[in-house]
């Protein structure tokens, strides 16, 4: 069976995997696969396409979407989707490819049925990341069932960061952008608190890919954000 067909069967969120490419994490990590994933239109919510990163049935799936007219010289909104098995008590995503000196988006089930807490973080060293006020997360969807939890957020402030350690997503065609992720299997002590401290990660990894799969027409991207409801 073709790899994209396997992924389509494994991932319960609605949509189709359009194409796939294998990538490798750090040596101590498992293999992952990047692909283009497109959701299904529903009502006034248009279909959206994402750069998807999938590791295995026990790890989260991460999906990124951006507007096609995005420029690295100007900030732009981004969308991040996380779909994770319950065994992972929190999942974090790095927009700059590492734990430190770039925006981090962290999510975990918050203890209330069907709800997921999201938090924007920043770390200057190998310590628990603090709250990052320069990025704002807007929750677009959230869900929990008997096996998985999922959340989707729009972010203002995740594509470009300023100060002494400034940086930006490189959206130029064909240019590889590096991302990173981490998970834990130890529960967050205060799950309803978006500013809560959380346990150290058990597993982490990195992947690199151009953002072509993530690009959507600006009108489609804006309509999706405006009409999607949590």
Automatic annotation (TrEMBL):
Residues 1-19 form the signal peptide. It holds the Pfam family CDH-cyt. InterPro entries: Cellobiose_DH-like_cyt, DOMON_domain. Residues 90-184 form the DOMON domain. Keywords: Signal. The keyword Signal applies. The keyword Signal applies. This is DOMON domain-containing protein.
């Amino acid at each position: 069976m073709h790899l994209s067909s396997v992924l389509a069967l494994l991932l319960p969120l609605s949509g189709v995997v359009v194409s796939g490419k294998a990538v490798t994490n750090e040596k101590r990590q498992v293999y992952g696969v990047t692909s283009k994933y497109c959701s299904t239109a529903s009502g006034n919510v248009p279909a959206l396409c994402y750069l998807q990163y999938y590791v295995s049935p026990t790890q989260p799936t991460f999906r990124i979407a951006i507007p096609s007219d995005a420029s690295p010289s100007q900030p732009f909104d981004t969308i991040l989707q996380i779909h994770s098995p319950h065994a992972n008590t929190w999942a974090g995503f790095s927009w700059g490819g590492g734990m430190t000196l770039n925006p981090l988006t962290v999510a975990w089930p918050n203890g209330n049925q069907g709800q997921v807490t999201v938090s924007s973080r920043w770390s200057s060293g190998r310590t628990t990341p603090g709250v990052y006020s320069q990025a704002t997360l807007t929750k677009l969807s959230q869900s929990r069932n008997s096996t998985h939890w999922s959340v989707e957020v729009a972010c203002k402030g995740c594509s470009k960061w300023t100060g002494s350690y400034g940086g930006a997503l490189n959206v130029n065609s064909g240019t590889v952008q590096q991302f990173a992720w981490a998970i834990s299997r130890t529960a967050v002590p205060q799950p309803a608190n978006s500013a809560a401290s959380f346990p150290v990660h058990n597993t982490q990894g990195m992947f690199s890919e151009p953002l072509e799969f993530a690009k959507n027409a600006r009108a489609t991207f804006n309509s999706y954000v405006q009409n999607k409801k949590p």
